[in-house]
Specification:
The protein has about 300 residues and is an alpha+beta fold. It is about 25% helix and about 25% strand. The chain contains 5 helices and 16 strands. The strands form 5 sheets. Strands 2, 3, 5 and 6 form a 4-stranded antiparallel beta sheet that branches. A 3-stranded antiparallel beta sheet has the order 1-8-9. A 3-stranded antiparallel beta sheet has the order 4-13-12, with no helix packed on it. Helix 2 crosses helix 3 and helix 4 packs antiparallel against helix 5. The chain is globular and about 65 Å long. The two termini are about 15 Å apart. About 5% of the residues have low confidence.
């Protein structure tokens, strides 16, 4: 996840780059521009002329990059699948972190979280009122009634895959169970809104509407992000959104959708003692699910879940 403050201001590249029809394509494929990305650029430019916010070339992945990111996503999903049976009452979040670390290395990956901007562990474990960035700790033991988010990002052959899942530990309250379920529904609803030549803002609108209809609120300051070549890239993905707003969705874009939904108010705060842990301001429980998603010619594909 990435905060709104960290997003960069990207300008339109298509109109800035003058490429001849017979020049090599900007993507590095070695093909002539007319046989590669020219038609896509021309279609993007029709939206740009009408005032739409359109993606830069950097946001549009090549087929080689897509294949690499897809494989990294598969490896990341394998890590989450591996650790899932261990997420139960009595285990420490520190032990979950070691399981993630050991298995990631075993299958040829690298835990992307470890040492990222000083983060000390290989995975994020966020329990109850912790919205995100919870740091694993041998002293934090999972108890019946907890809900926990396991957020995992894996580097494989230089590419990144990213996803997170929620777990209910033992018997949880009906209110927590509903929160976890509705948050997953929000993610699925957001995913269903991903279609080429529509707009990123519509994803957040659909997510926010479903959360509010169920009596919950969506965190505003933290959202999804582009991913694949780096841990965090543009675009920033709001889970509130504006209808028809934000970036045009174009085939080849890859980003996460990861709604953070609170049982109480949407306000959050950062724990200054560790500089990472984000909690709900009112102490209410929070839930999050995350996919890495590719925009395709006909819809969307989940690359990691």
């Amino acid at each position: 996840m990435i905060s709104i403050e960290n997003q960069t201001d990207c300008k339109k590249e298509v109109t800035e780059m003058k490429i001849g029809r017979n020049d090599p394509c900007w993507c590095g494929s070695g093909k002539k521009y007319k046989a590669c990305h020219m038609q896509l650029d021309e279609r993007i430019n029709t939206f740009h002329i009408k005032g739409a916010k359109v993606p830069t070339h950097k946001m549009i992945k090549t087929q080689e990059q897509i294949d690499g990111i897809r494989k990294a996503g598969e490896i990341n999903t394998m890590v989450l699948d591996y650790v899932e049976p261990y997420v139960k009452e009595g285990i420490s979040t520190g032990e979950l972190d070691r399981l993630v670390y050991d298995y990631t290395l075993k299958i040829g990956g690298v835990p992307a979280c470890l040492h990222y901007k000083g983060y000390p562990k290989s995975v994020c474990t966020s329990i109850d009122e912790v919205v995100c960035h919870g740091i694993p700790d041998d002293k934090r033991i999972l108890e019946a009634g907890n809900i926990i988010n396991i957020d995992c990002t894996t580097i494989y052959n230089g590419y990144f895959g990213d996803a997170s899942r929620m777990y209910c530990i033992g018997a949880v309250s009906p209110e927590k169970e509903k929160l976890v379920r509705v948050t997953k529904e929000c993610l699925e609803i957001g995913y269903q809104k991903v279609e080429p030549w529509t707009f990123l803002g519509d994803i957040g609108v659909a997510i926010n509407q479903h959360a509010k209809e169920n009596g919950f609120s969506v965190v505003r300051e933290i959202g999804g992000h582009g991913v694949g070549l780096e841990f965090h890239e543009d675009p920033w993905v709001s889970h509130i959104g504006t209808p028809g707003g934000d970036y045009l969705l174009v085939p080849g874009m890859i980003f996460t959708i990861e709604p953070m939904v609170n049982m109480g108010k949407p306000d959050v705060w950062e724990d200054e003692t560790d500089g990472w842990t984000i909690r709900t301001e009112d102490g209410s429980p929070s839930a999050q699910w995350e996919y890495t998603i590719l925009v395709t010619d006909t819809g969307a594909e989940i690359l990691s879940r």
